[in-house]
Design brief:
Keywords: Amino-acid transport, Membrane, Transmembrane, Transmembrane helix, Transport. By secondary structure, the chain is mostly helical. Helix content is 73%, strand content 0%. Helix 5 packs antiparallel against helix 14, helix 6 runs antiparallel to helix 15 and helix 7 packs parallel to helix 11. The radius of gyration is 22 Å and the shape is globular.
């Protein structure tokens, strides 16, 4: 079978996992996976840089993400696999590509688990200062490691309710915000266009400010990929991922762009509390809603814990898929009741190691880890687009019935997405802060590509060939 041949490819291109996830789980994983602390808190810094034009920044990056998810949804519906884009990249471009995309994403998720553990611990430590932060991190790691060691339906239930709370909070915020914009809240006057056009105009810091906001918004969307990993363990993988991708894209765009529009319409972008407290807390405080800060702290805590849970899951499934395809230590691929428990433990231990490094070496090793993962999501998106470009042609020729989800205006919008990613890379190279991340991520990517290519050549010389 050629690398881009799909006619004889099995529906599950890696290992036999369980099938305990329901459609409601997938729908909420798709929505909740991308709604994290980056939206609730981190977007405040982006607003401070871009001003009201943050609406445009999130709309542009949201359009790029919608294209990426449409491409990934097309491939995932045609060939559900827990290795997701790693499997697709291997089949389209070769084992080196699957190796590079898979292990770089695993590394990203493991470091992210550590970051989320630190953030969650800081919030709870503020409520219970008598308990040290490391103890909270240890507790969270144990809870979610245990959740992921059990049957996959337990992960699905945790993530379903976590995501439901986050989505509910955003819907409530949007509802209150719209009422305030219309002047229908008690003791609240409609702001009109004052905050959108005043204080320096819609784009107060010019194109440079818009670029900073655009870069921040691109990385805030990371997390959607988890739903295509989880789809392989659902009751009806093809139908499940197709529906989840279709419904999640426009809802997430509404949540992100809508939230930013509400914030910058109700508050001057120059308000210090937007960056200091986070845009959601600042807006609710401005509207005189009592306890807004604590309410949003609870929501942010849930967002962080949800992300920890989802990232341990995603990392363990990606590692399991890579091992099943001969790209890692065999021990990581052992299944116990349909769950890759050794992969779960390994991913959790690495995440906890990142937490320890943040205390021991915050200024060098931990910062190096942060810089290394800075642009990995863009590398993953590039592999998704490149793989879809090749696999779509093969699908149309050999198995058109598998095209349950189709990329719009193929291949032109795929080329547009690739051009958009290239533009983001160039913009990152222009900014001093993101340039460092780009170099570190580039170094890691080149290293993984070299290892993957060398491994592929060894396999070919032995006559084993690609396994996807």
């Amino acid at each position: 079978m050629s690398r881009t041949s799909v006619q004889d490819a099995p529906p599950q291109a890696d290992s036999p996992l369980g099938h305990g996830l329901k459609q409601r789980h997938l729908s909420m994983i798709a929505l909740g996976g991308v709604i994290g602390a980056g939206l609730f808190v981190g977007s405040g810094t982006a607003i401070a840089a871009a001003g009201p034009s943050i609406i445009l920044a999130y709309a542009i990056s949201g359009a790029l993400v919608m294209l990426v998810m449409r491409m990934l949804g097309e491939m995932a519906a045609a060939n559900p696999a827990s290795g997701s884009f790693s499997v697709h990249a291997e089949r389209a471009l070769g084992p080196w590509a699957g190796f590079t995309a898979g292990w770089s994403f695993w590394f990203l998720l493991c470091v992210a688990v550590g970051l989320e553990g630190i953030g969650a611990a800081k919030i709870v430590h503020g409520w219970v200062p008598g308990v040290p932060e490391w103890a909270w991190v240890a507790l969270f790691m144990l809870v979610f490691c245990g959740t992921n060691l059990a049957a996959v339906k337990n992960f699905g239930e945790f993530e379903f309710w976590f995501a439901a709370l986050k989505v509910g909070a955003i819907v409530l915020f949007l509802g209150i915000g719209v009422l305030a914009i219309l002047g229908w809240l008690p003791d609240t006057d409609a702001p009109g266009m004052t905050n959108l056009t005043g204080h320096g105009g819609f784009m107060p810091n010019g194109v440079d400010g818009l670029i900073v906001g655009l870069l921040a918004s691109v990385f805030a969307y990371g997390g959607l990929e988890t739903v295509t990993i989880a789809a392989a363990e659902s009751e009806h993988p093809v139908q499940g991922v197709a529906k989840a991708v279709r419904t999640a894209m426009w809802r997430i765009a509404l949540f992100y762009v809508g939230s930013m529009a509400v914030v910058v319409t109700l508050l001057p972008w120059t308000a210090e509390e937007v960056a200091a407290k986070g845009p959601y807390v600042a807006t609710l405080d401005h509207l005189g809603i009592d306890g807004a800060g604590q309410i949003m702290n609870v929501v942010v805590l849930v967002a962080l814990l949800s992300a920890m849970n989802a990232n341990i899951y995603g990392a363990s499934r990606m590692a399991n898929s890579l091992v099943a395809r001969g790209m890692g230590p065999k021990a990581l691929g052992r299944l116990f009741g349909g769950v890759p428990r050794i992969a779960v433990l390994t991913s959790s231990v690495f995440g906890f190691l990142c937490v320890l490094l943040s205390y021991w070496r915050p200024d060098d090793i931990f910062q190096w880890l942060l810089n290394t993962i800075g642009a990995i999501i863009l590398v993953v998106w590039f592999f998704i687009a490149a793989a879809q470009l090749k696999l779509r042609t093969a699908l149309e020729r050999e198995a058109p019935e598998k095209l349950v989800v189709k990329m719009w205006l193929f291949p032109w919008l795929t080329y547009v997405a690739l051009a958009g990613m290239a533009t983001v890379f160039v913009l990152m190279a222009r900014e001093s802060e993101t340039r460092t991340q780009l170099f570190y991520t580039g170094g890691l990517t080149v290293l993984l590509m070299a290892i993957g290519y060398a491994r592929q050549k060894v396999m070919e010389s032995r006559g084993t060939g690609p396994r996807a």
